[in-house]
């Protein structure tokens, strides 16, 4: 029996504000919720202007804390994704899969695990040994290289993963990334000892995503 591979459209948004990318996600989510079919599944790729985002497992962030972070030159958003506070900015490859899990497997746990395995597989292509831990995301030792935080409504996914490529890591010094005390963050550039821009990581991430999700990518 031939198994039909799901089609996933790749959309490159370039460098975009978090607010604008959120609107694009919401448009694609609405298309899914208004349709009974398995399409269009979409993979939104972008970099953000500096922004701190907080997920639904939020620790208290009083107005003065929000203002402190904004004073650094970053936006601040409270979101409906899983997880705690993190940072996105230039040099950060952000991937928002807006998928109907009915086209894959109707399991949120499975989906998150596949995202983690996708990033681990991509890291292997760079010669980096990465792994998961009890804390969501992908790690190199005790340092997180990729944060994962998703939302799922009626098996339609949104938000996704953020991979540190050649990010200015000093932005993370202003927060406790993902609320995890005693652990740090790292990047492809830091691990490899050379500059690794997002453009170098994109094809490897897409290749790993294709294999892990057994899908066919469609480019604009």
UniProtKB/TrEMBL annotation:
Active site residues per record: 178
Function: Catalyzes the transfer of endogenously produced octanoic acid from octanoyl-acyl-carrier-protein onto the lipoyl domains of lipoate-dependent enzymes. Lipoyl-ACP can also act as a substrate although octanoyl-ACP is likely to be the physiological substrate.
Pathway(s) served: Protein modification; protein lipoylation via endogenous pathway; protein N(6)-(lipoyl)lysine from octanoyl-[acyl-carrier-protein]: step 1/2
Catalytic function, reaction form: octanoyl-[ACP] + L-lysyl-[protein] = N(6)-octanoyl-L-lysyl-[protein] + holo-[ACP] + H(+)
Species per Swiss-Prot/TrEMBL record: Sinocyclocheilus anshuiensis
GO MF annotations in UniProt: lipoyl(octanoyl) transferase activity
PANTHER family the UniProt entry points to: LIPOYLTRANSFERASE 2, MITOCHONDRIAL-RELATED, OCTANOYLTRANSFERASE
Domain named BPL/LPL catalytic: residues: 37-217
HAMAP family attached to this UniProt entry: LipB (MF_00013)
Gene name tied to this protein: LOC107684031
Annotated substrate binding sites: 81-88, 147-149, 160-162
EC number(s) from the headed UniProt entry: 2.3.1.181
Keyword set, alphabetical order: Acyltransferase, Mitochondrion, Transferase
Name this polypeptide is given: Octanoyl-[acyl-carrier-protein]:protein N-octanoyltransferase LIPT2, mitochondrial
Pfam families: LplA-B_cat (PF21948)
Top EC category: transferase
UniProt-annotated location(s): Mitochondrion
GO BP annotations, alphabetical order: protein lipoylation
Main location group: mitochondrion
Cellular component terms (Gene Ontology): mitochondrion
Record-marked site positions (Lowers pKa of active site Cys): 144
């Amino acid at each position: 029996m031939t198994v039909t591979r799901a089609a996933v459209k790749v959309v490159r948004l370039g460098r975009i504000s978090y607010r604008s990318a959120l609107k694009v996600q919401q448009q694609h989510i609405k298309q899914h919720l208004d349709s009974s079919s398995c399409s269009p599944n979409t993979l939104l790729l972008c970099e953000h202007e500096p922004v701190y985002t907080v997920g639904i497992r939020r620790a208290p962030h009083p107005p003065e804390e929000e203002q402190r972070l904004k004073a650094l030159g970053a936006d601040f958003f409270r979101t409906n994704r899983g997880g705690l506070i993190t940072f996105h900015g230039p040099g950060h490859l952000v991937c928002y899969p807006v998928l109907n899990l009915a086209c894959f497997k109707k399991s949120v746990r499975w989906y998150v695990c596949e995202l983690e395995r996708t990033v681990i597989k991509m890291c292997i292509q760079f010669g980096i040994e990465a792994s998961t831990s009890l804390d969501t995301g992908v790690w190199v030792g005790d340092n997180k290289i990729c944060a994962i935080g998703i939302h799922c409504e009626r098996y339609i996914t949104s938000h996704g993963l953020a991979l540190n490529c050649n990010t200015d890591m000093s932005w993370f010094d202003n927060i406790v990334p993902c609320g995890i005390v005693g652990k740090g963050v790292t990047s492809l550039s830091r691990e490899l000892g050379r500059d690794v821009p997002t453009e170098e990581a994109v094809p490897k991430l897409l290749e790993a995503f294709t294999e892990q999700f057994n899908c066919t990518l469609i480019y604009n």
